[in-house]
Write a structure and sequence with these properties.
The chain has about 240 residues and is α+β, with helices and mostly antiparallel strands. About 40% of the residues lie in helices and about 15% in strands. This is RRM domain-containing protein.
Length: about 240
């Protein structure tokens, strides 16, 4: 019976290829560089996409791992703007496009931390000119992330401002629906404060609590009362006419 391999946590010291794969990779890289040198052509940089990264791999660990393949010029790990956490994919630029191609072939579907790494070469025409902007700067955690901003205690002025923004968005949404010919109505945002005297009086006029039996009686609006009175008067007149 074969012994089961124990799971080893990812650390910078343990990030390495298998010895057999590493020797094969070095042979491929040396052969590629010899072929490029024999053609007397300059090394063009190559960019690879690395996806499905394990949790806990950030810029220092990724750079230390991929530098065993060749010189890493730039590295860009995609992070969330709200939390600063890794999105699980990165772009890495090598000094030689042949090395980048071999790295992509070697690392694609490579098992790392219970995940199969997805890796492929990004064609030069698809590499955005601003892809690596700011990649040389070290990442600093947001001092006031969006989660903290939304969950902080809001003042009355902030609540009024938020209400105005909601109403403005609602108006824009209704306008877009009408422009597309969609006849759909939905409840809007009620920005009236709950504790205003007018709102409380209106609620009192609609509901009457009976303390004896805990029943709630709904008062009919005045216009419905007038209609009922008019209908009763008409019935009485009709009876007298008979």
């Amino acid at each position: 019976m074969t012994e089961a391999k124990t799971e080893v946590p990812l650390t910078p010291k343990l990030l390495a290829l298998d010895p057999q794969q590493e020797s094969e990779f070095k042979k491929k890289v040396q052969q590629a560089k010899k072929n490029r040198a024999s053609k007397a052509s300059r090394f063009a940089p190559g960019v690879i996409y690395v996806g499905h990264l394990p949790v806990g791999l950030f810029e220092p660990q990724l750079k230390a791992y991929f530098e065993q393949f060749g010189k890493v010029l730039r590295l860009r790990l995609s992070r969330s703007k709200k939390t600063g956490g890794s999105k699980g994919y990165a772009f890495i630029e090598f000094d030689c496009d042949e090395v980048a191609r071999i790295v992509a072939e070697t690392m694609n579907n490579y098992l790392m931390g219970e995940r199969l790494i997805k890796c492929h070469v990004v064609p030069p025409e698809k590499v955005h000119e601003e892809l690596f902007n700011g990649s040389q700067r070290g990442f600093s955690k947001p001092s006031f992330p969006a989660v903290s901003r939304y969950n902080k205690p809001h003042s009355q002025e902030d609540l009024v401002k938020m209400g105005k923004n909601l109403v403005r968005k609602e108006v824009k949404l209704r306008k877009r629906l009408s422009e597309k010919g969609i006849d759909y109505d939905f409840p809007g945002f009620d920005t009236t404060p709950v504790c205003t005297p007018s709102l409380l009086e209106r609620r009192k006029s609609m509901l009457v609590d009976d303390e004896d039996d805990d029943e709630v009686t709904v008062k009919m609006p005045q216009k419905y009362k007038d209609e009922e009175e008019e209908s009763s008067e008409e019935e009485e007149q009709a009876k007298k006419g008979e």
